[in-house]
Structures are given as structure tokens and as C-alpha cells.
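Propose amino acids for all 376 sites.
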């Protein structure tokens, strides 16, 4: 392992618990401007002292601006480090960092403030290799968890030499370090129902029950579920809302389903399976929150080999079902690698955690990938 990787992996691991405690102390659910501003201020304070700090308009309206920290040099390589500072945890459920043996437990630790800490450490390491870089940029967005519109930053970073995203890390069952090079496309199917209200006791026959129509639509959607098929399609109805009173036939409502597959086209076909009418109620189906798939296996194969050689242990590409902002960059930055964050688990749950012992090995992986990019 070369001195640059070893020195900065040590530094990242030593600082990680304190830096993670500072970031996790801030409750920053998606859409909360004050929380995002506070988290961005902490992240900016942890960036290299002379980093250029810029705030970019967020992809989602009414959100705090995203944070961009940049380090420039006289070299030729441009590297994008990617993360997000928003969580799905509401203020009332937020939990600050606490230690449970090797576990650092707290809201947003693995998804993905632990990854942000490693990314900030990698940016500081790159500040010590300015001769090799034209620009190293760290982009931390405020809306990854709940964004429903287009991602605004793709064009700005198109053509960079690499995009490294720091969502939570993982290992293979045999202990080999894994990084994510393939992700499914993801979207949300939204179905609205339009029926007719009536008194459920004296005149139920005069109503058209929107709730029953939505239940039928949920069954139709669930029948499209085909995880072992060619597109690895999963269709999971997750939310249904209808009715305001116990004695009134509900005249409207909505149904939401989470859909994932290898391609967006497969997800769009799911929408077409919803009939325009069930039981007399009119149904309108649409696809929202479209996230593209990612497949950088071929483009990154040689990069992973060089990085593995640099740390003396295997780094293997893996796939993951969850969506990530890395997928948006992969079409214009072929060397896109995700899953560079720390080892942990319990994302979005009260017991969410990272392993302190897993920070240094994952920092080595991230630094080795950067080293391989700069040496290419």
C-alpha cells in the first residue's frame, strides 16, 4: 500500500467518529431548510481549509442549496465525489450518535453521513495531490431521499474522469471488499381514483367506491411483480389512502407503488397495466420519481483491478437494488463507482449504524480508486 493511501486512510479513520458525531447531531430530513443549512455548514467546516465553497440551486424547489466544495490543481484529472446530507428521519424520531461497542448508532449514519465523512476525508487527501488534479469536487445534495423531479447537476459534471459515490459499503460473504457498479432503475407508480360518494348505510348502491377500485389496482400492480424475470422487475404497492368518514362511500383516493427494474422502459410498462376503470371508478396512473439504472461493470473493471493491487486485496463489483444519485452521472461519466461508504446497516431505522472498525478499510478502498484514476 503506498504512503498516500495509508497516511490518509489513517487520518480518515482517526477523525471519523468526531466528524460523524457532528454531522449526525444535526437533524436534516429532506425538505427541512434549517437542518440542511446546518449540516452543510458542518460539512463545509470539515473540507480542506482552502477549498472553494459554492452553493448550487437544489434540484427540488423550496430546499436549501446543495453544497459544492472544490480543490483545484495544475494536473489534468477531474474527480467528482458524491453524497447527500438529507435523511428520511423526521425531527421527532432523530437520534444523535451513540456508541455501542464497535457500532456508531444514530440517524443517517449509514445513509449516508458516514459516507460523507469518508468523502470529506478523500477530498482532504486530494488537496495533498494537487499536481495530479485539475479539479476534485465534492457535491453534497439536500434532496436525495425524496426528490421527485429531474436531477439538476448532470450537465455540469459531464465528462469528468470519475464519479465516486459514498453510499453505504458492503462486503461479499467471503470477506472481499465490494463496490457498487450496477443499480436498478427505480420509480414510483401513482394511481388516483375518482368515484362517487354516497351514504354507506342508506344508499350504498348510489356510490362508486374509490377504495375498492384502488384495492383492485393494487392487485393488478402486484401481479406485474417478476423479480426473476429478464428485467428483474419488482412491483410493491406501499401506500393507499381513501375515505374521510366511516359512513360514507369514498369517492376518491390514491395508491402508490415502488417499482424497480433493470431499465426505465420496464417500469413504464407497469403503468400501462393499470386499467382505466374498476367497478365504475375512473383510474389515472402515472410514473413519478424516475431514476435511471446504472451499469458501469465493463467500464470500471480495469479500474477495480488497479485499485485492488494498490491495497493488496480484492475489490469486486456488485449490484444493488436501491436507487442512488450515482445512476444519474453514469451515462456521462463511465468510471462511476458507488457504495464507497462505511460498513453498517439499519438504514432508515431507529437502530441505523456504521461499524467504526469498517471505516479504515473502506477509506482504503476509496483512496485506492482515486489513486487508480489519477495514475491512469
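Proposal:
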Amino acid at each position: 500500500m503506498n504512503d498516500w493511501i495509508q497516511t490518509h486512510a489513517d487520518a480518515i479513520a482517526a477523525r471519523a467518529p468526531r466528524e460523524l458525531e457532528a454531522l449526525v447531531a444535526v437533524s436534516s430530513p429532506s425538505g427541512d431548510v434549517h437542518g440542511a443549512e446546518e449540516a452543510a455548514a458542518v460539512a463545509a467546516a470539515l473540507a480542506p481549509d482552502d477549498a472553494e465553497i459554492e452553493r448550487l440551486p437544489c434540484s427540488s424547489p423550496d430546499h436549501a442549496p446543495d453544497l459544492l466544495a472544490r480543490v483545484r490543481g495544475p494536473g489534468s484529472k477531474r474527480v467528482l465525489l458524491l453524497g447527500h446530507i438529507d435523511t428520511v428521519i423526521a425531527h421527532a424520531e432523530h437520534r444523535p450518535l451513540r456508541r455501542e461497542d464497535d457500532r456508531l448508532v444514530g440517524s443517517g449514519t449509514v445513509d449516508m453521513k458516514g459516507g460523507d465523512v469518508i468523502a470529506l476525508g478523500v477530498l482532504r487527501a486530494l488537496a495533498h495531490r494537487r499536481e495530479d488534479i485539475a479539479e476534485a469536487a465534492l457535491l453534497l445534495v439536500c434532496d436525495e431521499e425524496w426528490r421527485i423531479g429531474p436531477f439538476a447537476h448532470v450537465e455540469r459534471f459531464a465528462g469528468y474522469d470519475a464519479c465516486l459515490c459514498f453510499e453505504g459499503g458492503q462486503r461479499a460473504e467471503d470477506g472481499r471488499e465490494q463496490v457498487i457498479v450496477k443499480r436498478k432503475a427505480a420509480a414510483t407508480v401513482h394511481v388516483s381514483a375518482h368515484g362517487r360518494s354516497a351514504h354507506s348505510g342508506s344508499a350504498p348502491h348510489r356510490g362508486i367506491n374509490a377504495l375498492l377500485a384502488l384495492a383492485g389496482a393494487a392487485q393488478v400492480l402486484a401481479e406485474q411483480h417478476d423479480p426473476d424475470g429478464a428485467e428483474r422487475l419488482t412491483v410493491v404497492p406501499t401506500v393507499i389512502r381513501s375515505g374521510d368518514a366511516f359512513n360514507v362511500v369514498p369517492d376518491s383516493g390514491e395508491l402508490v407503488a415502488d417499482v424497480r427494474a433493470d431499465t426505465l422502459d420496464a417500469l413504464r410498462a407497469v403503468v400501462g397495466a393499470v386499467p382505466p376503470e374498476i367497478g365504475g371508478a375512473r383510474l389515472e396512473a402515472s410514473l413519478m420519481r424516475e431514476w435511471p439504472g446504472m451499469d458501469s461493470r465493463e467500464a470500471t473493471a480495469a479500474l477495480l483491478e488497479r485499485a485492488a493491487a494498490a491495497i493488496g486485496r480484492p475489490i469486486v463489483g456488485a449490484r444493488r437494488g436501491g436507487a442512488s444519485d450515482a445512476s444519474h452521472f453514469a451515462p456521462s461519466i463511465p468510471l462511476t463507482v458507488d457504495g464507497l461508504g462505511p460498513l453498517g446497516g439499519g438504514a432508515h431505522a431507529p437502530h441505523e449504524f456504521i461499524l467504526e472498525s469498517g471505516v479504515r478499510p473502506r477509506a482504503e478502498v476509496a483512496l485506492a480508486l482515486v489513486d487508480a484514476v489519477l495514475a491512469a
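Residues 151 and 213 are 34 Å apart (CA to CA). The first strand starts at residue 52 and ends at 56.
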